[in-house]
UniProtKB/TrEMBL annotation:
Keywords: Aminopeptidase, Hydrolase, Metal-binding, Metalloprotease, Protease, Zinc
Encoding gene (name): APE2
Protein name: Aminopeptidase
Root EC class: hydrolase
GO biological process, one term: peptide catabolic process
Cited Gene3D superfamilies: 1.25.50.20, 2.60.40.1910, Neutral Protease Domain 2, tricorn interacting facor f3 domain
Residue span, ERAP1-like C-terminal domain: 560-879
Amino acid sequence: MSTPENSSEWFRLPTDVRPRHYDLTILSDLEALTFQGAVATELEIFNTTRQIQFNAGKGLTLGSVRVSLDGKQTSVAPYIDAEHERVTVQLDEPLQQGSHASILVPFRGVIDDSMMGYYKSTWEHEGKKGHYALTQFEPTSARRAFPCFDEPELKAKVTLHMLHRDGSTALGNMPADQTSSIDANGIAAALHTDLGVPAPDAPGAWLRTDFGTTPKMSTYIIAWANGHFCHLESEYHSSLTNKTIPLRVYTTPEYIHQAHYALQVKNLVLPVYEKLFDVAYPLPKLDTLVASDFDAGAMENWGLITGRTSVYLYDDKTGLQGKKVTASVQSHEVAHMWFGNIATLAWWDNLWLNEAFATLMGEVISLDHVYPEWNSASEFIVSHLGRALELDGKRSSHPIEIPLQGENVEDAVNQVFDAISYSKGASVLRMLSRLLGEDVFLKGVSIYLKKHLYANTVTKDLWDGISEASGKDINALMSNWILKQGFPVLTVSVEGDAIRVRQNRFLDTGDPTPGEDATLWQVPLALKTVQNGKPQTDFALMLDEREKVVPLPRAADAVWKLNAETIGVYRVAYAPEHLQRLGKAAAAQNSPLSLEDRVGLVSDAFTLAQAGYARTSGGLALMQELRGDKSSLVNQAAALNLQQLGSAWWEQPEGVRDAINAFRIDVFGPLARELTFDFGKDDAPELRELRSTVIGAAGAAGDPWTLAQVKERFAPLLDHDDDSRIDPDILRTVLSLAVRHGGANEYDVVMRVYNKPPTPRHKLAAMVAFGYTQDRALLQRTIDFVFSGKVKSQDFMYFFMSLAANPSSRRMLWETVKARFDELAARFEGNFSLSNLIKSSISSFSQEQDAKEVEAFFAARNTAKFSMSLAQGLDSIRAQARWLERDAQNVAAWLKAHGYERTE
Ligand SMILES: [Zn+2]
């Protein structure tokens, strides 16, 4: 075989030969933790060729390949390029264009704990322990479980047969047609052991389950599982097809009592999607399997969604936040049944088409239909838009649609599952939807879906659909938002009866070069003005050049605001006096500025200060003005920004750090006292969230009243394991603060919660709490525990989260990562988690010398699997260092002038 000149050719299989149908048999031996199979693939020959190339992952052992052409069969030894996970079958006779051939490949592999391919998970019930196996294929791990053409565009039908032990359950994408017993001869025949992979030594009684044939589908959404599962069932009647399909949630026995809500969500959102898209859910069933070991949050396998326990399980002890997570993740995955599964990205550079849509449809639009009281559309500004702009403000960010680079497809693809593909993509779509109106936008989406049923798409296909619905040139409007890195910051100044608006590329270091500042975006200005006390917004006003002067009578003293309702993917820098005017208007009774406006103002003020487009004192003054605002989202935005300020200032003099905390206590403490810790069962969601937000923020700043309450609420847990005084929505706050301000006793109590958690969220709260201890010995105990072998790989990130947030352990965490880097790299090989862990362990530093030290450490190491996260973490350190250089004095002076200096 010759080496391609351009290494990126390794990414793609040749297109001479494409699969039509996989007939796939898998035997799962849960005792030996091995699997074995045979796959017969029908092929279409598009160009005459002597070669068939497909993928097989590391760890898969193949037998001979039997090639069938026109009734003639030949056996060929495959050439395996393990490094590039590619198999070549060289033929003596060419396969003629237009002919139909097939290949049969036997294989075997190990059911390991990699959380990729066909892997092992564990259960524990009534004193017994065991394991089961399930698949995770996205993006490039189907090839670890069976030889296949593992690219999204190479769609084929799949007929699955599972061989499994009697008494166990087999699940696949489609419903099981039949289950029958099978003997050793039957197993050997089904696995084609004559092709060089000997029959497994697997005594006992075995079953064969045959599943129905799927529609044409991509390999990454194929799924199966085998184990001892329980399930809950309901059904959905489609008004489009008049068919009734079963809906189920499967868990291992210990969790089934907490699976009702995840099932209910499917019933709630399916009719919404069918109505909005006017396309029926296409498969005859929709299952969800809840797994104890899972790398991502959840996965949209067609007809068999999978996901974490902490995402899917819910009961009364889980709280509102947990309920929202279950609803939004389930709804996101169900949205993928259309976006991604029916119409699929052509290649991974268009990942955003899948993820941005599922995020916007699943977490905002459908939830707004089902739970209007949750205010999901406004929450989006704090969650997704904020995340998007934070990452995209970095020099090391990337365009939404990204050409994949590098030697290894898995490394390159894994790294684009980030806030750009999900959150920025969704933010850009939301902007478009607000600009056109949601009805027109969704009409365009429906046109797009119907045009590309069971096919593959690129971004332009979507724009064509929305152009048809809106009559506008959407491609021209959107192309820079999708193809260019970054987003603009608008600088506005008053010129008589007009404002001058200028766009430049935003960078969190505030220093774009002319080359980096070349993009001009089409920016919807959404200018809000107030006339006769009533707000009015001009959504048609666009900025499509560098600068524009917009007439605005009495601009110097009127209340006006750009980016009304925070619909846009940009920041706005006002002159300090106008920001003050907006702050006053925002704080006024019957304010013309909406909740979304206020949240946007707070986020903009602090982000612009961090990046040097404004002074931090302006953000602090705005926060002082908005003190006492009773909306949970404004408080969430404020808490987040002040927490980031405190975090960046972690090595500043103690007096300044105390003054920052005194300010935070002044902002959140009075509201915490007013609202108290007494949650009511019938509290509105808004009140519940406001209370948990201000308690968390006041407690984090060290508010004495809040800490006394925490102590009192924690006491029964300390005494006799009674957590009834702690509402689930402040569980994480209470456990974290109890550990932070307590000692070994508090730590031990939280360890008991960890070991016997009533819900997965209790366990999650405990994992986060351990990292907040201030005691060096207990911090070491936490770190030792993480690496003791007792912590699941999927859970490392929760420990890292607080160890990085806690100033007392930041450096310990980084020292640990350095010392154990090889161990981490091996443990998380091929997972999404490694890049998150590396990023969280470095991103809180705020000195240039730390950035240099991180660079020096990785200089001689292979960073291909997390190069983007590493660069982003380094950018964070440097942005924080510059922020301090610019504004350390400014912050200290403002705090002193406003009486927040320590007085004792
Ligand atoms: Zn998704």
